[in-house]
Amino acid sequence: MDLLDPLRRAAAMVPAHAGSEAGVTVADALDYLDHRELEIALGLVIELGETFDAGTTFWTLLAASAAEMNLPRAETWCRWRAAETRHGIIRAELQLLSPDRPGARRVAVPGAGVLRPLWNIGLVMPEGHPDLRIARIWVERTPELPAGGSGPIRLAPLGPQGWRHLKPGDRITMHEQAPPAGIATITQASFPA
């Protein structure tokens, strides 16, 4: 596979007027591509993907490029973003409970979508107990969230259709045992029509 091809195809999807907060444009990414600085170009195109309504094809092309460059975190992120374009984006501020509390985590939450805890999202089973749902966690801006810590996360539900009632400000609880392990406050919940 020629790494330049999927990167160039993804870069061609970026609107000319798109620019990151740091002032990066698609022209910058193309300049790095022309000089075969592929990892830098990939990072810039990924960054630009957050500035417009990038579709599944865009993220899939970038995931393929990252896989060919042996950049597993970038590949996983691009696959994550492709899934978000299909199913929606759920972001939250997660506060893990203190490690000395029952049910709380005693180790950090890995950042790249590995952990799949249960979540109480406010749904109730016919028998009256909470209808817990599974969602993977992506920790934003850091490789992991320390035990007892807090930070921004993204959620990828196993069954996204059951999460559409959530809105910013809603509080949901994370469970790995019967007592909660953390409490998340929804900051963004947007779903495709």
Explained architecture:
This protein is α+β, with helices and mostly antiparallel strands and 193 residues long. It folds into two domains: 4-86, no CATH class; 89-190, Translation factors (Elongation Factor Tu (Ef-tu), domain 3), CATH 2.40.30.10. 31% of the residues lie in helices and 24% in strands. Strands 1-6-4-3-7-8 form a six-stranded antiparallel barrel. The chain has a two-stranded antiparallel ribbon with strand order 2-5. β7 (171-175) and β8 form a beta hairpin. α1 runs antiparallel to α2, α1 (4-12) packs antiparallel against α4 and α3 packs antiparallel against α4 (56-68). The longest helix has 16 residues, at 72-87. The chain is elongated, with a radius of gyration of 19 Å. The model has no long low-confidence stretch (mean pLDDT 93).
Give the helices and strands, then pairings:
Elements: H1 4-12, H2 26-34, H3 38-49, H4 56-68, H5 72-87, E1 89-96, E2 109-110, E3 118-120, E4 133-139, E5 144-145, E6 150-157, E7 171-175, E8 180-190
Antiparallel strand pairs: 1-6, 1-8, 2-5, 3-4, 3-7, 4-6, 7-8
**What's the architecture of the largest domain in CATH terms?**
Beta Barrel
Low-pLDDT runs of 5+ residues are none
Please write the CATH class name of the largest domain. Answer: Mainly Beta
Largest sheet: 6 strands, antiparallel, barrel
Total count of domains: 2
Q: What amount of the residues lies in strands?
A: 15-25%
Distance between the termini: 35 Å
Q: Numbering strands along the chain, what is their spatial order in the largest sheet? A: 1-6-4-3-7-8
Number of strands: 8
Radius of gyration: 19 Å
| Strand/helix succession | HHHHHEEEEEEEE
Helix content: 25-40%
Mean pLDDT: 93
Number of helices: 5
CATH topology of the largest domain: Elongation Factor Tu (Ef-tu), domain 3
